[in-house]
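Re-run with default settings, no changes from the original entry. Doing this only to confirm the output is reproducible before filing.
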Amino acid sequence: MKYINADIILPEELLKEVQKYVQGGMVYIPKPEGLRKRWGENSGSRLYLKNRNQEIRRLFGNGATIDQLSAQYCLSCDSIKKIVYSKDK
């Protein structure tokens, strides 16, 4: 996150209004709801996990056991069950 000095970017009236609430502190201003990215979208983690889970479901459908998948993917049996029995496909 990049630090930007408010007195450079905000109009004077708005700066004075913000200073009523925060003086000399840092304020985080989030992006509007529609512009926010979901967890893992920037790093690729979301796509990686989606692909991994699809592969786990495919292997389970082809006869792999929960224990085999747990060992292969280093996940608990409960995690594998959540993946293979979830409705997210």
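The helical segments are 6-9, 12-19, 45-61, 66-73, 77-85. The chain has a mean pLDDT of 91.
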